[in-house]
Amino acid sequence: MDATLFDPTHDLDEIRTWQKTLPGPSSLIDIEEVIQLEAVQKRTRLWRQAGQLVALAYVDNFNNLFFEITPEKTSKEVEDAVVDWGVACQKLLNEHQQSMANLDACVRADAPLHLRVLQEHGFETSAIRSLKYRRILNTLITPMPLPAGYTLRPVHGEAEVDALVRLHRAAFGTDAMTAEERLSIMRAPNYLPELDLVAADANGTLAAFCIASLEELEGERVGYTDPIGTHPGFQKQGLAKALLSHALLHLQQMGATSVYTGTSSENLSMQQLAKGLGFELYRENIWLTKRLD
Q1: Where are the alpha helices (DSSP H) in 20-144?
Q2: Which of 72, 102, 122 is the endpoint of a domain?
Q3: Neighbouring C-beta atoms of residue 87, cutoff 10 Å
């Protein structure tokens, strides 16, 4: 078995083709975006047998291990290598950031291979879940109105990145989003600028946002709306609901037959927003943690 670091000059096309051969939805969440980041590229490893890709793993900027293994090609050697790579990457991250962070992973509840690999290598299950919602677009979407004085528009391209980063950080109470990470979203192959929506007040201040996307999946057009956020100073006015409903309408007009969104089991307001716009819970993802102390 040969192990190599990710090569941005040719590996991505191979990964895309390989993912289509795997059973079920891929666990490599947002790889088209995160792989744009040089730091993540350096923490991405591929394993091949007889020249064929059989496994891939990377650790993102938030201490999360993501991996896929071809089920027919799995072995203790492959599984050990995937987890060992994740642990090594996280230890280097901790050394660089002078932190003591553990290594996390998020996998589908119906992904027995992933769960077994993680649990056999010392990952412990968390009570937190990632909730996945789906809205079938079988009726005409009626967009919700914005409050008086607000406008809805697509972002003004990369020139607005710094303002978008500030909005994201304020909305989620975190400093995790960086200009480089926001640009990686905007430079991903599947990025559609007309679906990168913001709401601004009468002074032009950005108040809320919703990033939507569209892809072909098994012969159908499928939409996604994630992330969605509102600045704390503009909450409780219906901005997120208006943005999400407009995103649904845009996606429907572009041919989407269903739309997916997600949130944490702890985010009750987002759960209520999704249900209020006709989304239904269809899947839960499990969070696991491997302690590195």
Answers
A1: 31-34, 38-41, 76-97, 112-120
A2: 122
A3: 17
- The answer to whether the bond into 112 is cis (omega within 30° of 0) is no
Residues 107 and 248 grouped into a single domain: no
**201 and 90 housed in the same domain:** no
pLDDT tens, residue by residue, 241-277:
999 999 999 999 999 999 999 999 999 999 999 999 9
* Structural domain boundaries enclosing 79: 2-122
CA distance 271 to 142: 20
CA dihedral over 161, 7, 85, 114, signed as positive or negative: positive
Give the C-alpha separation, 86 to 289, whole Å: 12
User: How many angstroms separate the CA atoms of 97 and 156, rounded?
Assistant: 33
E strand segments, the chain? 2-5, 44-49, 52-59, 64-69, 103-108, 124-136, 151-154, 196-200, 206-217, 220-230, 258-264, 280-290
Residues 6+ apart with CB under 8 A from 139: none
- CA dist 221 and 215 (Å) reads 6
Q: Name residue 178's amino acid.
A: T
Q: Which of 143, 106, 109, 122 is nearest to 239 (CA)?
A: 143
User: How many CA atoms are closer than 13 Å to the CA of 151, on its beta-carbon side?
Assistant: 7
- Taking the C-alpha atoms of residue 184 and residue 178, their distance in angstroms, rounded to an integer, is 10
Instruction: Write out pLDDT tens, residues 168-183.
Output: 999 999 988 999 999 9
Same domain, yes or no: 82 and 158:
no
Give the residue from 91, 122, 153 where a domain finishes: 122
**DSSP symbol at 237:** S
